[in-house]
Design a protein that fits this description.
By secondary structure, the protein is an alpha/beta fold. 47% of the residues lie in helices and 14% in strands. The strands form 3 sheets. It has a 5-stranded parallel β-sheet with strand order 2-1-5-9-10, with helices on both faces. The chain has a 3-stranded antiparallel β-sheet with strand order 7-6-8.
Length: 327
């Protein structure tokens, strides 16, 4: 008896490998996948603006990277003793205004160069809801920074509105970097604070928009992370305690599906070796001076050396330093 749907994500006609550069932009779910890929030694730059949820914020961030937009002090506001940018996540907020400006501009410069050289751009959309500043001509914001609710008007983006914005952004990205491939995915995280019905309306619009774009453009792909979690896993044991965010087991399953869809068997085999080394590095011996532990470190250092020799494009310097006792 089958206990879950038999589903495999469609195999893409292009593959990701460890020589590629991957820029990921979007919701918190993209950071789960991005962190997993970084642990597997892929070259990943994720969310240079911090977490973004709606298509308008994603489009604004991408065009700002293309033109290497630089921010000044007038672009910030102070709330609860911190200086914030309406276009950035609170991880960029700071008590010192000049530091906040500097950190964001450094991120902009890094994102500009990385996108110019990127082989893949992964965009994860989380919500069709956009928040607009009432006292600033209803300008859209990427993050509300826990400001009073009356500062904002909540707007459910229309399908045509999202298509127009993303279509324009994609054209600009392809002009800026003619070799980049784009993978769209929709976050399976439920935005319950919007309401169950409203969340489903929001997700449905994103699904329609993304498939319209994928059918229109070459080098655009869709990875069904939303469908995998909602329709295949479909059980609360795959969710965190808040019953909204997919847990480790779910994100690992999605990652496995992602690798099967976008990576060769050789790359997947290399991932297994790299994951083994990553797990070994997290091991902490209760008795580090024992011969057994020293033998363990030496064996892992040997594995790192062999992998580095076989795959010289991998950056395993930190792992080599750790197992040799230098870090």
């Amino acid at each position: 008896m089958d206990l879950m749907l038999n589903f495999n994500a469609p195999k893409a006609d292009k593959e990701i490998n460890h020589r590629h550069k991957i820029l990921s932009v979007g919701s918190c779910f993209t950071e789960h996948i991005g962190n997993a890929l970084k642990d597997l030694k892929f070259s990943v730059l994720q969310n240079p603006n911090g977490i973004l949820f709606d298509p308008v914020s994603v489009c604004q961030s991408l065009t700002s990277y293309i033109y290497q937009q630089q921010y000044s002090e007038k672009d910030f506001f102070q709330l609860n003793e911190l200086w914030h940018s309406w276009q950035h996540h609170s991880r960029f907020s700071h008590t010192d205004l000049s530091t906040a400006v500097q950190n964001i501009n450094q991120s902009q410069t890094e994102a500009h160069q990385f996108l110019k050289e990127a082989d893949w751009l992964i965009i994860t959309l989380g919500s069709s809801f956009s928040y607009r500043l009432v006292n600033h001509s209803f300008a859209p914001v990427a993050n509300c920074h826990r400001a009073p609710a009356q500062w904002f008007k909540k707007h459910l983006l229309g399908i045509d509105e999202m298509i127009a914005g993303l279509d324009n952004a994609i054209h600009q990205v392809f002009h800026f970097n003619p070799k980049v491939n784009i993978i769209f995915t929709i976050s399976p995280v439920r935005h319950i604070r919007d309401g169950v019905i409203e969340n489903n309306r929001s997700k449905a619009r994103l699904v329609e928009v993304v498939h319209h774009l994928v059918n229109k453009f070459n080098r655009l792909y869709y990875f069904p992370s939303y469908e995998i979690v909602i329709d295949v896993l479909r059980d609360y044991r795959f969710y965190d305690i808040d019953m909204v965010h997919p847990n480790y087991l779910a994100t690992e399953y999605v990652l496995q599906q992602f690798m099967q869809a976008y990576m060769s068997s050789e790359t997947i085999a290399l991932n297994k070796e790299l994951k083994s080394i990553s797990i070994a590095r997290r091991h902490r011996s209760a008795h580090p001076q024992t011969k057994a532990n020293q033998k363990f470190l030496e064996s892992q250092l040997q594995k790192v050396g062999q992998l580095q020799q076989q795959h010289p494009y991998l950056d395993l310097a930190d792992e080599a330093a750790y197992f040799s006792g230098k870090n």
